[in-house]
UniProtKB/TrEMBL annotation:
<feature type="transmembrane region" description="Helical">
    <location>
        <begin position="466"/>
        <end position="487"/>
    </location>
</feature>
<feature type="transmembrane region" description="Helical">
    <location>
        <begin position="408"/>
        <end position="429"/>
    </location>
</feature>
<keyword id="KW-0328">Glycosyltransferase</keyword>
<dbReference type="GO" id="GO:0006075">
    <property type="term" value="P:(1-&gt;3)-beta-D-glucan biosynthetic process"/>
</dbReference>
<feature type="transmembrane region" description="Helical">
    <location>
        <begin position="378"/>
        <end position="396"/>
    </location>
</feature>
<dbReference type="InterPro" id="IPR003440">
    <property type="entry name" value="Glyco_trans_48_dom"/>
</dbReference>
<dbReference type="InterPro" id="IPR026899">
    <property type="entry name" value="FKS1-like_dom1"/>
</dbReference>
<dbReference type="GO" id="GO:0008360">
    <property type="term" value="P:regulation of cell shape"/>
</dbReference>
<dbReference type="GO" id="GO:0005886">
    <property type="term" value="C:plasma membrane"/>
</dbReference>
<keyword id="KW-0133">Cell shape</keyword>
<keyword id="KW-1133">Transmembrane helix</keyword>
<dbReference type="GO" id="GO:0003843">
    <property type="term" value="F:1,3-beta-D-glucan synthase activity"/>
</dbReference>
<feature type="transmembrane region" description="Helical">
    <location>
        <begin position="1241"/>
        <end position="1260"/>
    </location>
</feature>
<keyword id="KW-0812">Transmembrane</keyword>
<dbReference type="Pfam" id="PF02364">
    <property type="entry name" value="Glucan_synthase"/>
</dbReference>
<comment type="similarity">
    <text>Belongs to the glycosyltransferase 48 family.</text>
</comment>
<keyword id="KW-0808">Transferase</keyword>
């Protein structure tokens, strides 16, 4: 059979070699459903359209030319195919026919959009270092050129290992290798590859510097970190600048040869040219004199002033203004004289800051300082503020001595006014200057803003955001100033005026040498010192108050907590279907929900709602009967059948009111919509129930008696006896339903059912005819011409029934009717579990919040979730459950006491008693000691118990289950869409599964998994076995880990197949990937296995919910460029602390944490726009951060909190971090020792102060 080869994909055949048959998402077998998707076919075919030998694609070309690793090529081939496929499917909602058509060509616009996203940082780097980037100009080869460059960049990035933390180094390598794409011949000497020739030399230098900090314990200012190495590539130090035209440097590396091809080319008989790259990198490294490149962090207390100088200036200047107003009285001249002291104060403080600038720059490379714009900026500021300081002090002194100070006063006002005008204009025109930086005569103006480094420039915001930011602080400072003036400064000013001229010296117990002839200076200092201290510190209190007020207003505007109780949820339940159709369904865009309820909307909502309720039951948050009350049937006889907890007790209450107070009943029917719906459904269901039981016999029909006409004539003025008749019929119908409910009856008494039916028929007949009831128990023979026989009853349990005219009633229908008739009002208060209540309330409340319209599954953005794991618990073993802690309490006992209702729900789900389960667990715990045998029949119960406990602890199992809800939610939504759209689809479930694989992937980076499998300790081996169990449980879960073979290290990706653990990729690393902080480097080595355009950062202490996963595609729409404002690069997500119920201390800590992750994040994002990434479950623009150093920082002793530095990196590279609260992810407070708790408390206090100062400093301008 003929075989056509697409890269390494063989269509039409399968290989028995497990190394070649392994796949991650795209299988090698073209018959797989995901490979049949038109967008996947188009992407795969596009890669083969290159002028290479038949059957090869662009990755085969790159592998042959640059000697990339085989698995790196396979990994990036799948990566690029999925990126192109998702970029193509993004147009599905706009033009479904073109996406699903037979055309196997990708549009140029699709390829160009992906090309621009990946090349964006490279183009900016080329512009900064003034070099020309490769261009794709020929239209006929435009797509090929773009795909070739994208594939090359991904291959370099995929094999760069720790060099991925150096994004501009990646740009440097790509720039030089891209010029060699058309070169023919080998580029490396024999035995050399891209890894050994290019990546390893850089890695070795990074490792050498990192070892200095580990082994020699040198200060971090004495050795280079990742950022220092990356800054090496921000300048032209690595390029040879021609003497005649320094503005347009050549694209050549600074090597002895002039031919750029020879930089990496090896000629036989000559020394290896690859050595020159290594030597050149070492030369550039030595040229910096082992010093920092652009900034050196010195741990000194001067940072309290230098880093927050604007805050100090603001507070001290404001204090001078308040003091001047308090002491001037009614003298305008004195007030003006005192206010002018602001000028000298400002210039002196800026001069001190300039001096510290010079001190802080000591230790930076001379080559960087020799750049004129850097050195000139530092020197100019030092000289300018020095001159202004001495000048203004001299003039101010002259002005004070002059009586009256008219002439010198003008000398002071004119320059100060001119400086203020220039200062305002400088910031007002900044955005325009940045836009016109391409003009050479205006580019020099950037020197005024110190934008001479690659990052931190062009951070100015639109005027609207500045005014919103300024308004917040003006109001805050206005309130602070008013309070300080009237309650602190002014009272002390009056007292100081009395003490200052007082001649009598106060006698202290110690010798006061200060106050003599100094107007009681010590007394004045003692009076003012505490006030000034409070004045400097109370800004934190004011910020807390304003954050609470502004956050509350924003939350109210966003409609947060509108549904805050079960009563509110029940009252507004009928509006949920329409709101869900607008928010969560992929349909035509609507701004608001239509009025009224459409049956189709209710049926769709019921599918969503029921799936959420089933998840709550599987998680043991609700009982079986609560599930029955909460489930919403799809519909019956064109009626919307609402959940029973809305209708519970309504029918029985209506019957009671009818017999006691009919007027109140009719009033309740007007106001309580669910009571009328319950009565309507009860009548319709009871009629259908009766007709089905009699199997459609016309002789026994009730409708022919005219009951409907009779019921329509009843009103509140009807006689009481008619209501009593209805109550009697109601009681008999309820008893009949109870007799046929299999959940209440072990065996149905068919004779009793027949008697009850006949009795109901007689009662209805008497009710219609207004006759008195016959007071006899047996009325069969006297009231009906034909007696209902046993063989006439249409029930599955009726063995005498031979022929059936109608299908028997389903047990769930009978069960629902029984609940409808027999339930009380107490059954409406479900669920009982507080966590279940909170989740349902938040989900239903989010349906009213503003969120983007949900796209179809096919058109949504693809995303991945990445979780770093070290050696935390995976699944609690039985031994762990019974192991006592230092207080003598086991985990299982503790969880049973903290979550008693959830433990009972587990026992109910397993259908076992607590004593029986305890015996099984004790037997299971004795397996390891060999004391007892363990029956395999009870293995599932032990497994469910272990998982139940693990899902309530800080384990990997809990995190994995929560994140895999994304997959379940996408599969659920895709199934619904495919069943509606693909009417003729053979297998919509298979198509939905393929779309789920296309849109979502989950990678857990288990750094030590390879070691744990071979570990000598049983505990570690059990963790590896539990990880394998998670892979068997959750289809689609991928495990990445670092594998070592001697001195060689590899990044591996594995999955669980039918035959066991299967290796997918094995990519060699230049060395041990853990050089700095462990968590970010663990993320870095596995990030190459993630897919999609978005990446969510999830830690080991986080969880997720199915109902929140349903809103993920709405959240990803926030990445689309808005009509106004910058595009988001990090989407902040609301976080719920779920450990608050453990204890009172945990409750307090959870509230403290929640105040930061809710109110705090809300205000930082709006109106301040200074929110960063604080380790919460934020979603990153993956392609943006992929090309800019990743999602975290890893320098040892510098990036201790790697998450917040990721936020800094995103902001300083012109990213935008937002915050959204219509979706939430759960989080658990990490376990802390007593020592760590004390340290964390100190750190939190310090962090709060630093956050206040940092926000006041206006990070948009400061971080440059």
């Amino acid at each position: 059979m003929a075989v056509r080869r697409l890269g390494t994909y063989e269509v039409g055949s399968s290989s028995n070699n497990p190394r070649t048959s392994a796949y991650n998402i795209l299988p090698l077998n073209a018959d797989a459903e995901i490979c049949k998707l038109p967008e996947v076919k188009a992407a795969r075919n596009e890669l083969t359209r290159f002028p290479v030998k038949e059957g090869d694609d662009v990755f085969d070309l790159l592998k042959e030319k640059f000697l990339f690793q085989e698995d790196n090529i396979k990994n990036q081939r799948e990566h690029l195919i999925l990126l192109l496929s998702n970029a193509r499917s993004a147009d599905y909602d706009k033009d479904p026919a073109s996406v699903k058509g037979k055309d196997q060509d990708l549009p140029v616009a699709t390829v160009r959009s992906l090309f621009e996203k990946i090349m964006d940082n490279y183009w900016k780097w080329c512009s900064h270092v003034r070099i020309r980037s490769p261009d794709c100009r020929r239209e006929e080869e435009d797509k090929q050129c773009m795909l070739k460059h994208v594939a090359l960049y991904l291959c370099i990035w995929g094999e760069a290992a720790n060099v991925r933390f150096l994004p501009e180094c990646i740009c440097f390598l790509f720039h030089n290798l891209a010029k060699l794409l058309e070169h023919q011949g080998p580029l490396y000497p024999e035995g050399q590859t891209f890894l050994t020739a290019i990546v390893t030399p850089i890695y070795e230098k990074i490792k050498e510097e990192a070892d200095k900090g580990k082994t020699t314990n040198q200060k971090h200012s004495k050795w280079k970190n990742y950022d220092d190495f990356n800054e090496l590539f921000w300048s032209n130090l690595l390029f040879k600048l021609p003497q005649d035209n320094p503005i347009q440097p050549s694209n050549q590396l600074h090597l002895p040869e002039d031919d750029p091809i020879q930089h990496f080319q090896h000629n036989p008989g000559q020394p290896s040219k690859i050595k020159y790259f290594k030597d050149h990198f070492e030369d550039a490294y030595k040229n910096t004199e082992s010093k920092k490149i652009s900034y050196v962090e010195r741990r000194t207390f001067f940072h309290l002033y230098h880093s927050f100088v604007r805050v100090w200036i603001l507070l001290i200047v404001l204090l001078e203004i308040l003091v001047a107003c308090a002491f001037s009285g009614n003298s305008l001249v004195l007030l003006l004289k005192l206010l002018i002291c602001i000028g000298p104060t400002y210039f002196v403080m800026m001069f001190l800051k300039s001096v510290l600038d010079v001190v802080m720059m000591i230790g930076i490379s001379v080559q960087v300082l020799s750049r004129c714009h850097v050195k000139a900026s530092i020197i100019f500021q030092l000289l300018f503020y020095g001159a202004c300081s001495f000048g203004t002090i001299f003039l101010y002194r002259k002005m004070i001595l002059e009586m009256p100070p008219n002439e010198i006063l003008l000398w002071m006002l004119v320059p100060l006014g001119a400086y203020v005008v220039i200062f305002i204009l400088r910031h007002a025109v900044r955005r325009q200057v940045e836009r016109m930086e391409r003009y050479k005569f205006l580019a020099c103006l950037n020197w005024l803003y110190r934008d001479y480094f690659y990052v931190g420039g062009r951070l100015s915001e639109k005027g609207f955001y500045y005014w919103r930011y300024a308004l917040f602080w003006l109001l805050l400072l206005g309130c602070k100033a008013s309070f300080s003036y009237f309650f602190q400064i002014k009272p002390l000013a009056e007292a100081s005026k009395s003490i200052y001229p007082h001649n009598e010296i106060v006698i202290y117990q110690w010798h006061d040498l200060i106050s003599k002839r100094n107007h009681n200076a010590l007394a004045l200092m003692s009076l003012w010192a505490p006030v000034i201290l409070i004045y400097l510190l109370d800004i934190q209190i004011w910020f807390t108050v304003f954050s609470a007020v502004v956050g509350g207003i924003l939350g109210s505007k966003d409609r947060l907590a509108e549904i805050h109780s079960l009563d509110m949820l029940r009252a507004r339940f009928d509006t949920f279907p329409a709101e869900l159709a607008v928010r969560l369904l992929a349909s035509k865009k609507q701004t608001s929900a239509p009025k009224g309820i459409i049956i189709s909307q209710a049926k769709t909502f019921s599918k969503f709602w029921n799936q959420i309720i089933k998840c709550l039951r599987n998680e043991d948050y609700i009982k079986d009967y609560e599930e029955e009350l909460l489930i919403m049937p799809e519909g019956f006889n064109n009626y919307i059948t609402w959940p029973l907890f809305l209708l519970a007790g309504k029918v029985s209450l209506a019957i009671k009111l009818a017999t006691e107070n009919p007027e109140e009943l009719f009033e309740r029917l007007k106001n309580d919509k669910f009571m009328s719906l319950a009565i309507r459904e009860a009548y319709a269901s009871a009629s259908y129930y009766y007709d089905t039981l009699i199997d459609g016999h016309k002789d026994y029909e009730i409708k022919k008696l005219g009951i409907e006409r009779k019921l329509s004539e009843i009103d509140k003025s009807s006689p009481d006896k008619e209501y009593k008749h209805i109550a009697r019929i109601y009681r008999k119908v309820k008893k009949l339903v109870w007799l046929t409910d299999m959940d209440n009856q072990k065996k149905v008494n068919i004779r009793a059912v027949a008697d009850a039916l006949q009795s109901i028929y007689v009662d209805v007949s008497k009710f219609v005819k207004n006759e008195k009831y016959v007071q006899r128990a047996d009325v069969r023979s006297t009231t009906m011409p034909n007696e209902i026989q046993v063989e006439d009853i249409n029930l599955p349990a009726n063995e005498n029934k031979r022929t059936r005219r109608q299908k028997p009633l389903e047990p769930k229908f009978i069960r629902r009717l029984h609940w409808l008739l027999a339930s009380t009002e107490a059954h409406s208060s479900v669920p009982k579990n507080e966590e279940a209540q909170r989740r349902l309330q938040f989900f239903t409340n989010s349906l009213f919040m503003r969120m983007p319209q949900a796209p179809s599954i096919r058109a949504m953005k693809a995303f991945s979730v990445l979780t770093p794991y070290y050696r935390e618990p995976v699944i609690y073993s039985v031994k762990d459950l019974y192991l006592d802690n230092e207080d003598g309490i086991s985990i299982l006992f503790y969880l049973q006491k903290v979550f008693p209702d959830e433990w009972e729900n587990l026992l109910e789900r397993l259908k076992i008693t607590e004593k029986m389960l305890t015996d099984i667990l004790i037997k299971a715990s004795n397996i390891s000691t060999g004391k007892d045998a363990f029956s395999k029949s009870d293995a599932e119960k032990v497994r469910e118990t272990r998982l139940w406990a693990s899902y309530r602890g800080q384990t990997l199992a809990r995190t994995v289950r929560g994140m895999m809800y994304y997959r379940e939610a996408l599969r659920f939504q895709a199934c619904m869409e495919e069943r509606e759209i693909e009417k003729n689809e053979i297998n919509p479930e298979a198509r939905a599964e393929a779309l789920t694989d296309l849109k979502f992937s989950y990678v857990v980076s288990c750094q030590r998994y390879g070691e744990q499998k071979k570990h000598t300790e049983r505990e570690e081996r059990e963790k590896a076995e539990d990880i394998q169990e998670l892979m068997r449980t959750h289809d689609g879960l991928r495990i990445a880990f670092v594998h070592s073979e001697g001195k060689c290290y590899y990044s591996k990706l594995i999955k669980m197949s039918d035959t066991g653990e299967q290796e997918i990729y094995k990519i060699q690393l230049p060395g041990n990937p853990i050089l700095g902080e462990g968590k970010p480097e663990n993320q870095n080595h596995s990030i190459i296995f993630t897919r999609g355009e978005a990446l969510q950062a999830i830690d080991m202490n986080q969880d997720n919910y199915f109902e929140e996963a349903l809103k993920m595609r709405n959240l990803l729409e926030q990445f689309k460029p808005p009509d106004k404002g910058p595009q988001a690069t990090v989407l902040g997500v609301r976080e719920h602390i779920f450990t608050g119920s453990v204890s009172s201390l945990a409750w307090f800590m959870s509230k403290q944490e929640a105040s930061f992750v809710t109110l705090g994040q809300r205000v930082l994002a709006r109106p301040l726009r200074v929110r960063m990434h604080y380790g919460h479950p934020d979603v990153f623009d993956r392609l943006f951060h992929l090309t800019r150093g990743g999602m975290s920082k890893a320098s040892k002793a510098i990036n201790v909190s790697e998450d917040v530095f990721a936020g800094f990196n995103s902001t300083m590279r012109n990213g935008n971090i937002t915050h959204h609260e219509y979706i939430q992810v759960a989080c658990e407070l990490k376990k802390l020792t007593q020592e760590k708790k004390k340290r964390k408390s100190c750190y939190l206090m310090l962090l709060q102060c630093l956050i206040i100062f940092g926000i006041l400093t206006n990070v948009f301008n400061y971080r440059k």
